[in-house]
Design brief:
This protein has 5 helices and 5 strands. The protein has about 160 residues and is an alpha/beta fold.
Length: about 160
């Protein structure tokens, strides 16, 4: 599938957010929410920083966008995420009524939009989100690989701190 220049620009914004997570020692995942071709919410993983298992990039971006609009319904908005969302985040995306979901890289361990599950295509919900994958997948994959490689290197240097 060919993606528009705008879609590429928005995914690059999500990759910048993922870079912020990387710099903080968080799993490098980023998300941005777009309304009328403008970023109205953005987030990056902060699970370790906030000691909060729900502090995923998507959750932070959804909260920021809802605060910006002043409504929990984001039905005229699109979300761009560097990695396929998990069950929790997919549920939030459906509950927020987001229109389109773009993600870069599939997540075979936790993905809920085609990998382990495919929640957006279930006909049981009162909302359908359009899902598009593969946009900037190589960049996202490389960032994740670099992050986990650096973690393994740190673990090799200090094995007692990871027991």
């Amino acid at each position: 599938m060919l993606f528009s220049k705008e879609s590429l620009r928005f995914m690059r914004s999500a990759l910048k957010e993922a870079g912020k997570a990387f710099e903080m020692g968080e799993v490098p995942i980023g998300a941005v929410i777009i309304h009328n071709n403008q970023v109205i919410g953005k987030g990056h993983n902060q699970v370790e920083t906030l000691k909060d298992p729900t502090a995923h990039a998507e959750m932070i971006a959804i909260t920021a966008a809802a605060n910006h609009i002043g409504d929990w319904r984001l039905n005229e908005c699109d979300i761009y995420i560097t990695v396929e969302p998990c069950i929790m985040c997919t549920g939030a995306i459906l509950n927020a009524r987001l229109r389109n979901l773009f993600f870069a890289e599939f997540d075979p361990k936790f993905g809920a939009c085609g990998s382990l599950y495919n929640l957006p295509v279930e006909k049981k919900y009162n909302h359908i989100v359009n899902v598009f994958s593969g946009l900037c997948a190589d960049e996202s994959r490389k960032l994740l690989q670099e992050f986990f490689r650096s973690l393994r290197d740190i673990e090799k240097q200090n094995p007692e701190s990871y027991s």
